[in-house]
Amino acid sequence: AKDLGGNRLAFFSPHMTEVLTERLRVEAGLRHAIEHGGLRLHYQPIMDARTGQVSSVEALVRWADPERGLVSPLQFIGIAEDTGLIVPLGEWVLNEACAQARRWLDAGWGEIPVAVNLSARQFQEPDLDRVVDRALQRTGCPSHLLQLEITESSIMEPVEQALQTMQRLTSLGVQLAIDDFGTGYSSLSQLKRFPVRKLKIDRSFVNDLGSNDRGEALVDAIVALAQKLGLRTVAEGVETEHQAQWLARLGCDELQGYLFSQPCAPQDLENWWQGRVAG
Ligand code: C2E
Ligand code: CA
Ligand code: CA
Ligand code: CA
After folding, report:
1. 211: buried, middle or exposed (CB in 10 Å: 19+, 13-18, 0-12)?
2. Using a 6 Å cutoff on CB, does residue 73 contact ligand 1?
3. Would you give the end-to-end CA distance of the chain in angstroms?
4. Any signal peptide, and if so, which residues (predicted)?
5. How much is the ipTM here?
6. Please, are residues 243 and 259 in contact by the beta-carbon 8 Å criterion?
7. Which of 39, 117, 268 most suits a substitution to test ligand 1, by most atoms within 8 Å of the C-beta?
8. In this structure, which ligand is nearest to the CA of 206?
9. φ and ψ at 55, to 5 degrees?
10. pTM, rounded to two decimals
11. Which of 94, 169, 268, 279 is spaced 20 to 30 Å from 150 by Cα?
12. Does 44 contact ligand 1 (Cβ within 6 A)?
């Protein structure tokens, strides 16, 4: 038995053991954060390309870890998905984003639509529409102020089921967007069946703008397709004035990126806003 144990241990290299230990640590810490108020939402403005006004904001989760500070979602969303923690985490995000939209409304900032990211795993939960409805009811957030961003890959399999889920969500009055568009392999013929309002053009294409012709051709094609289908387009990861002008010229409706603002805490966003209005 000892030998066998030895062999098993040998199967896990010290590096793998380290990785597993780290994952377990993240899982435990994350679980604690979800239950004890350790998560934060930052908000990034999305600008109307024509008017230059803020058209909506995207909520992006951060983990306020006492030791590591604000942890990026790139470091824990994957683990949250693997462990199922994405379900309670996602529910917290929905509630908090709706509560914030309601607070902005009550404080006189007006109607600010808030976009929330849904992971594939959440999208497959059979009671997702009930969770969304509950968040709206509980917070008093008008349903048209909530937008849900779904990645291309999560809506593809199986298509009929995804279609039903999307229909149940839109019947609540929320709006749907397809996130990271262009990185998956969505069938364009299916796209027109989906009750979505917006396509978010992935950052990688925006990055390519101006540096190679392929980037431009792709953005151009996506915008043309969206227009044909009556969908709005949002470009992610806009970092330069040059990219913004290019995107506006190609007919992209909305722009999001560091050029305008990083994602930030609600108070910082309000200050940024006030600064813009003051000129
Ligand atoms: P995403 O949905 O594609 O969100 C956009 C990401 O790009 C954000 O990273 C944002 O900070 C970053 N970004 C925005 N503008 C720029 C720019 O001009 N340049 C560059 N280089 N990056 C920019 P963040 O906040 O680290 O989030 C990463 C990903 O984590 C998100 O990608 C999303 O997939 C996921 N995520 C974030 N919050 C949630 C959440 O509440 N639930 C779920 N399921 N996933 C989330
Ligand atoms: Ca997103
Ligand atoms: Ca995205
Ligand atoms: Ca992305």
Report:
1. exposed
2. yes
3. 74
4. none
5. 0.97
6. yes
7. 117
8. 1
9. -100, -30
10. 0.93
11. 268
12. yes
